[in-house]
């Protein structure tokens, strides 16, 4: 007779196993995600399953009573002590006796799918570098003069097949107390390097811990530092938070920070200490928000541009300010929190910094590539991460090119007369009536919509404080559509445009969007200088994209993805009217959300993704915009709105 058939749901995985096989063993052999921290000792209860009985025509089986073994002593003891939910069994104790259908509830699935990207529904399997392991350690014996650590290592080898385990010196003084307190049982958090080899214990608890362990995915940008706190067991984001990068006081953009370091001896140290302090503050804040203790944070992944990368690591970024833009290292880095003075999270927390692509194309671009996978795309994708610096990737299955382009902070609302960050009170979207030249807009944090399309006639509104990046892009594009601005970017006078909203301001004109002064608010205008700033920023972005297209010898891309916290909010149509992105059918422009942040979360949750991004980065062709003559040419032509020479046929359709 055949061995019993075991079918797991929801995965649908099935196989035949000899009578007496524990369900946990069958699950492991079939690659079914069934959790276990205690290694099948009936202590952790992570392996809970729900057997189903009756007829299952869909699966072609009938499950009879007795298809699983009766409760054994261990299961009984667990149920008496802590209670098992109705219908549940411990997968490590129940054994297969006949054909059976077994459901694995979500709480018991360790490899639960977690990271969902905005654009598509790609899901990332949980395979974190840091996991908890429970072991029973041999008590010391007068005749066996080995140390507690040595016996712990033997237990990890015997019970979990873990080799080459190390314990940092800082934990050694606690080891003996923890082992005795736990009655010779202990849970350790063990960090595995993605390169194999050593595995380090980074935290430990007496007995079987109920403690959860967490990781941080940090996108360290020039303007903002954004962090996600993730549960390392299931990848769930427990809290997200961000702070301004305090280095802004040393310079708005990257190059001004590099020059600050060049001009001021010790300037790099000041910036390093400022950013580390900010990360410590952010760690504290995010832990409080999630209601956890910061020492439960055992891992952190960073993505950042090369200058931020160097300053985080305490490396003077001066080499990045001059050709040939040499990085101190382009490889990924595995460090401990202590090395970076990140002393709010667990002191042994492990840090992983994604590799940089080139001197100007950082780990943030690598993270975007990991998240958006242009290297797996059938069609030619242009991915633009819009920020103070734009990271641009162009590619498909046959190869990927990357560059970065210095757009400056205008897209983030900086250096714009009424500019502000995307926060409550900021105008984020705008429409200008082509006939009356009157604007209507949408303000962040304002629930009051008067029009069906969500835009209101704002004259009566108060509390408007400025205009953010997506707002200014739309404003300039709408001004162009309404004929208030000519292709060169010049704002017309009141006579030329027929609206008193165009006001003379010295020798140029500006367009009044909102006069809040009566209510004590600011007067919000788009000045000629604002338009110039946007022209510079968009030309830099377009020229970068064009340069990659030249290298690839194409004059069209199949699709465009706008990424970045801000990129996700840009209207595709307005970006194209401005000539910020190349011509493509509008429905082929999508948003990738915060792709760099998503890439950081992927690398946090999946150790294999770290190997993947390291390989991918080596295969990417790097283009250095600063030394490409063509870049300057593209930049100058892109100054016109939408462009001096390139046609934008899609805009006409
Ligand atoms: Fe821990 Fe079953 S594996 S109780």
Automatic annotation (TrEMBL):
Pfam families documented for this protein: RACo_C_ter (PF14574), RACo_linker (PF17650), Raco_middle (PF17651)
Positions of transmembrane segments: none
One example GO MF annotation: iron-sulfur cluster binding
Domain 2Fe-2S ferredoxin-type, residue spans: 4-108
Chain coiled-coil ranges: none
InterPro entries, A to Z: 2Fe-2S_ferredoxin-like_sf (IPR036010), 2Fe-2S_ferredoxin-type (IPR001041), Beta-grasp_dom_sf (IPR012675), Corrinoid_activation_enz (IPR052911), Raco-like_middle (IPR041414), Raco-like_middle_sf (IPR042259), RACo_C (IPR027980), RACo_linker (IPR040506)
Protein name: Na(+)-translocating NADH-quinone reductase subunit F
Organism of derivation: Pelagimonas phthalicica
């Amino acid at each position: 007779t055949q061995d019993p058939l075991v079918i797991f749901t929801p995965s649908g995985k099935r196989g035949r196993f000899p009578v007496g096989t524990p369900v946990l063993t069958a699950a492991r052999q079939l690659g079914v995600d069934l959790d276990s921290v205690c290694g099948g000792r009936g202590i952790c209860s992570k392996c809970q399953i729900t057997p189903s009985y009756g007829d299952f025509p869909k699966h072609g089986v009938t499950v009879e009573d007795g298809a699983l073994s009766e409760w054994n002593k261990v299961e009984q003891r667990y149920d008496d002590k802590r209670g098992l939910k109705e219908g549940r069994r411990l997968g490590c104790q129940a054994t297969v006796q006949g054909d059976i259908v077994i459901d694995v509830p979500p709480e018991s699935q360790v490899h639960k799918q977690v990271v969902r990207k905005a654009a598509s529904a790609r899901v990332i399997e949980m395979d974190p570098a840091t996991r908890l392991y429970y072991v029973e350690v041999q008590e010391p014996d007068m005749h066996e003069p080995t140390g507690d650590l040595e016996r712990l290592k033997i237990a990890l080898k015997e019970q979990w097949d873990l080799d080459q385990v190390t314990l940092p010196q800082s934990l050694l003084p606690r080891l003996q107390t923890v082992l005795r307190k736990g009655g010779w049982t202990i849970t350790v958090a063990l960090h595995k390097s993605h390169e194999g080899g050593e595995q380090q214990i980074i935290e430990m608890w007496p007995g079987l811990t109920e403690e959860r362990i967490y990781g941080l995915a940090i996108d360290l940008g020039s303007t903002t530092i954004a962090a996600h706190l993730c549960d390392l067991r299931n990848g769930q984001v427990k809290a997200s938070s961000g702070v301004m990068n305090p280095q802004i006081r040393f310079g708005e953009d990257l190059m001004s920070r590099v020059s600050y370091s060049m001009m001021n001896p010790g300037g790099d140290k000041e910036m390093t200490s400022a950013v580390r302090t900010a990360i410590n503050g952010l760690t504290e804040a995010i832990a409080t928000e999630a209601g956890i203790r910061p020492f439960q944070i055992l891992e952190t992944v960073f993505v950042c541009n090369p200058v931020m990368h160097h300053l985080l690591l305490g490396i003077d970024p001066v080499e990045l300010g001059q050709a040939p833009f040499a990085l101190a290292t382009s490889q990924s880095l595995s460090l401990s929190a202590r090395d970076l003075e990140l002393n709010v999270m667990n002191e042994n927390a492990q840090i992983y910094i994604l590799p940089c692509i080139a001197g100007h194309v950082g780990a943030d671009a690598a993270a975007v590539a990991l998240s958006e996978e242009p290297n797996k795309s059938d069609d030619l994708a242009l991915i633009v991460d819009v920020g103070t610096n734009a990271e641009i990737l162009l590619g498909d299955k046959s190869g990927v090119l990357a560059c970065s382009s210095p757009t400056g902070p205008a897209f983030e609302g900086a250096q714009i007369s009424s500019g502000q960050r995307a926060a409550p009170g900021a105008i984020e979207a705008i429409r200008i009536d082509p006939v009356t030249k009157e604007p209507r807009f949408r303000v962040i944090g304002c629930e009051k919509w008067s029009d069906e399309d969500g835009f209101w006639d704002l004259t009566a509104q108060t509390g408007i404080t400025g205009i953010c990046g997506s707002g200014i892009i739309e404003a300039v594009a709408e001004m162009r559509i309404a004929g208030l601005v000519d292709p060169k970017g010049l704002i017309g006078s009141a006579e030329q445009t027929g609206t008193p909203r165009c006001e003379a301001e010295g020798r140029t004109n500006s367009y009044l969007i909102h006069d809040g002064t009566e209510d004590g608010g600011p007067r919000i205008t788009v000045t000629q200088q604002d338009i110039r700033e946007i022209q510079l920023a968009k030309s830099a972005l377009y020229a970068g994209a064009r340069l990659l297209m030249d290298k690839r010898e194409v004059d069209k891309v199949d699709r465009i993805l706008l990424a970045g916290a801000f990129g996700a909010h840009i209207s595709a149509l307005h970006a194209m009217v401005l000539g910020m992105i190349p011509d493509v059918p509008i429905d082929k422009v999508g948003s990738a959300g915060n792709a760099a942040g998503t890439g950081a979360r992927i690398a946090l949750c999946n150790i294999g993704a770290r190997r993947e991004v390291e390989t991918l980065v080596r295969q990417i062709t790097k283009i250095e915009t600063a030394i490409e003559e063509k870049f300057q040419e593209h930049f100058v032509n892109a100054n016109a709105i939408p462009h001096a020479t390139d046609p934008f046929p899609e805009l006409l359709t």
